[in-house]
Amino acid sequence: MTKRFVKVYPRFERLWHWMQVLLIMALLFTGLGLNGVHSVIPFGPAVMLHTIAALALLTLWIFATFWLFTTGTWKQFIPKIEGMIEVAKFYAYGVFSGQEHPYKKIFWRKHNPLQAATYFGLKWFVFPAIWVSGVLYLTYNFWGQGAQIITIVANIHLLAAYVIAAFVIVHVYLLTVGHGFRSHVRPMLTGYDEVDLTPEQLAYLEQNEPDRLLPAE
Q1: What DSSP designation does 52 have?
Q2: Sequence-separated contacts (24+) of 147-150 with Cβ below 8 Å
Q3: What region holds the Cytochrome b561 bacterial/Ni-hydrogenase domain (predicted)?
Q4: Helical packing angle, 113-121 and 84-92, nearest 10°
Q5: What pTM value is reported for the model?
Q6: By Cβ atoms counted within 10 A, which residue in 75, 104, 108, 112 is the most buried?
Q7: Contact 19, 60 (CB under 8 A)
Q8: Would you call 7 helix, strand, or coil by DSSP?
């Protein structure tokens, strides 16, 4: 294996990621206000901002879902059992004793098994739950006889929001472990990350996609 810096995050994926960050933070902030945690923004404007950010995020997710399936990138989020326990042990206690990360990023697999399983759960269960409950919550005035289940819808929406908030907190925390915050964030800014390449993969990139490789040091 040869270590090289390869562009593993294309421009759209990085744009999608950072727009998602901004919109989710706006939703969490306004959502906390709507639930009485703070009163920085009056209730009316908070509802409006929350709704605008939610619709913008839903639109972004629709485009991202289309991109994931048309480019085949969705395969990156299929979880694998192999290596998951080792990665979990590393995050649980190995990182505190200076152990090396057990997962080495490879060309066709940029997420470790635990990351892939987490993203899979978010994209297939948590995100749809917050989409559906959010749209139902937004349109409950049109339900008629079904309006009595608004409490259930609201609780599902709130639970999904708390799961996403927990994910954000853990995600940011994990950026600080291992090689440090800057080395973890830089790939999502530049698109390039250090990857283990087989001789065949390196030859393919050099011949067919040389722009995805940074010059060897």
Answers
A1: H
A2: none
A3: 8-191
A4: 90
A5: 0.86
A6: 112
A7: yes
A8: strand
Residue type for 167, please? Answer: F
| CA 141 to the chain's CA centroid | 32
Name the token pair of 6: 């390869």
Taking the C-alpha atoms of residue 86 and residue 107, their distance in angstroms, rounded to an integer, is 20
DSSP-assigned letter for residue 191: S
C-alpha to C-alpha distance for 154 and 42, rounded to whole angstroms: 20
**Helix 181-190 to helix 11-34 angle, to the nearest 10 degrees?**
120
Between 29 and 207, whose confidence is greater?
A: 29
Residues 6+ apart with CB under 8 A from 95: 177, 178
End-to-end CA distance of the chain: 16
Q: What angle do CA 107, 202, 199 make, to 5 degrees?
A: 100
pLDDT of residue 203: 86
